[in-house]
């Protein structure tokens, strides 16, 4: 979700669900510690509960980065051991760390030592390249759990670091949900969430019969109303009605105006809103107006309201 789940995206998604845990895009520990890019940790208080996802492989550097995250008030600090991009491979972090569970465990110990009461978690794959996932995944979980980690999110695909692009790694390696489900049976005391290829709340509910949690990434981004509106009711048992997608867009107006006064371009916010009406009448006009107009000088809330006027109102998802 790099370049996707930034603070504007998360604020928008939070208007759709009060209870789902939101994740930042991955922030590298070197960027924070050596590069001083602490602005990458900025978030809005309204985003809670929100987890920050770190990338790195140096235990001391990750500890320093964790301190910065804890000081900012994040609800969780997550180490990414699943991203297959070339950039993270060259930095020796991301999915390549599936090959070195002892190093991951050392990193997690260092992070936990400074995290105070903030939970420290891991997101991983089931394996990489020619590893035997049936052997590697349980050994990885056991080794890292011994460092005191109790929460894992498992992307149910291997990452092929040789031969597949990051984009291809999101779709081509086959999903192995049964293997991830078996991990919950093998490690009943751990909180295990499943990720990968899950696109609907119905899918999520089915996995929750076995797993402790479900992470949804791309589907929640491309069709946020379809996935996030109604999540509080369907997953968390909320009894109050969900907002409509129209109400969510209108609730964004004060935020947009405040961000524009800070010099943020409208496009930086509305690019995350293009999928709001996916599959609904008027969705194409909504996308076209925002795509063509949001980058122009002076574009603001009036443009969003104009785009919204072309989408027929609809009942809340519940």
UniProtKB/TrEMBL annotation:
The active site is at residue 83. CDD domains: DUS_like_FMN (cd02801). It comes from the Bacteria. Signal peptide: none annotated. Its cofactor is FMN. The keyword Cell membrane does not apply. Keywords: Flavoprotein, FMN, NADP, Nucleotide-binding, Oxidoreductase, RNA-binding, tRNA processing, tRNA-binding. It catalyses: 5,6-dihydrouridine(20) in tRNA + NAD(+) = uridine(20) in tRNA + NADH + H(+); 5,6-dihydrouridine(20) in tRNA + NADP(+) = uridine(20) in tRNA + NADPH + H(+); 5,6-dihydrouridine(20a) in tRNA + NADP(+) = uridine(20a) in tRNA + NADPH + H(+); 5,6-dihydrouridine(20a) in tRNA + NAD(+) = uridine(20a) in tRNA + NADH + H(+). Its EC number is 1.3.1.91. Pfam families: Dus. Residues 1-303 form the DUS-like FMN-binding domain. FMN binds at residues 53, 123, 155, 195-197, 217-218. Belongs to the Dus family. DusA subfamily. Belongs to the dus family. Catalyzes the synthesis of 5,6-dihydrouridine (D), a modified base found in the D-loop of most tRNAs, via the reduction of the C5-C6 double bond in target uridines. Specifically modifies U20 and U20a in tRNAs. This is tRNA-dihydrouridine(20/20a) synthase. The gene is dusA.
């Amino acid at each position: 979700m790099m370049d996707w789940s930034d603070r504007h995206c998360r604020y928008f998604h939070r208007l759709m669900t009060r209870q789902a845990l939101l994740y930042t895009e991955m922030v590298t520990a070197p960027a924070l510690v050596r590069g001083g890019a602490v602005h990458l940790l900025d978030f809005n208080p309204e985003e809670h509960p929100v987890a920050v996802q770190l990338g790195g492989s140096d235990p001391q550097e990750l500890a320093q980065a964790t301190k910065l995250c804890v000081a900012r008030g994040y609800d969780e600090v997550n180490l990414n051991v699943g991203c297959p991009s070339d950039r993270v491979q060259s930095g020796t972090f991301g999915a390549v760390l599936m090959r070195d569970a002892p190093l991951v465990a050392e990193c997690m110990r260092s992070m936990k030592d400074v995290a105070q009461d903030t939970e420290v978690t891991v997101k991983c794959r089931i394996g990489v390249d020619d590893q035997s996932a049936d052997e590697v995944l349980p050994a990885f979980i056991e080794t890292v759990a011994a460092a005191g980690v109790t929460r894992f999110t498992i992307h149910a695909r291997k990452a092929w670091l040789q031969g597949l692009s990051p984009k291809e790694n999101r779709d081509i390696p086959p999903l192995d949900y049964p293997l991830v489900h078996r991990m919950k049976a093998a490690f009943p005391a751990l909180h295990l969430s499943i990720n990968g290829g899950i696109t609907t709340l119905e899918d999520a509910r089915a996995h929750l019969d076995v797993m402790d949690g479900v992470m949804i990434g791309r589907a929640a981004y491309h069709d946020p109303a379809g996935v996030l509106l109604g999540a509080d009711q369907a997953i968390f048992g909320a009894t109050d009605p969900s907002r409509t997608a129209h109400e969510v867009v209108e609730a964004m107006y004060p935020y947009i105006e405040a961000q524009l006064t800070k010099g943020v371009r409208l496009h930086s916010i509305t690019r995350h809103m293009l999928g709001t009406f996916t599959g609904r009448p008027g969705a194409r006009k909504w996308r076209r107006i925002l795509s063509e107009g949001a980058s122009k000088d002076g574009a603001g809330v009036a443009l969003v309201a104009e785009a919204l006027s072309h989408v027929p109102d609809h009942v809340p998802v519940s």
